[in-house]
Amino acid sequence: MTTAVQKSLKSLSFTINGIPYVTKRPVASQVLAGGLCGGSETGFQIVAGVKSPKADKVQGATLNLCFGAITGTGLTSSTFLGASTDQNGTVTTAAIDPATSTVHIG
After folding, report:
1. What is the mean pLDDT of residues 8-29?
2. Do 41 and 79 contact (CB within 8 A), yes or no?
3. Labelling 55: which of 40, 76, 86, 98 has CA 20 to 30 A away?
4. pLDDT band for position 86 (50/70/90)?
């Protein structure tokens, strides 16, 4: 799964407090349950350089994206961790949980 995420990332755009950020050279790694997302969630850590805004251009960015609620077909669980454990159905969307996800610039 990490390979698919890594291949899809050429850059990453996000907004913090109304400031748009664009990254360069993002690298993704999987976060397992019990790690940065706590015991009940999994997700990805993305580390990248900041391309813009200009004031933060020399900084790095670390995003810990923890997946909570999911939607899909044939699922027997309502969480990404549960679906990855059950291996039933197809996940269509996974919501990033704002309570456990973090962003660090610098």
Report:
1. 88
2. yes
3. 98
4. confident
Q: Which residues pair with 50 in a beta bridge?
A: 23
The full DSSP string for the chain is: -HHHHHHH-S--EEEETTEEEEEEEEEEEEE-TTBTTBTT-EEEEEEEEEEESGGGTT-EEEEEEEEEEEEEES-S-SBHHHHHHH--SEEEEEEE-TTT-EEEE-
Q: CA–CA separation, 38 vs 14, rounded Å?
A: 23
Q: Can you give the pTM of this predicted structure?
A: 0.80
List the Cα angle 89/95/97 in 5-degree steps. 130
Residues for the chain: how many in total? 106
Look over the chain and give the mean of its residue pLDDT values, rounded to a whole number: 89
Number of C-beta neighbours around residue 74 at 10 A: 9
Token pair, residue 46, equals 């993305």
How far apart (Å, rounded) are the C-alpha atoms in residues 58 and 52?
Answer: 9
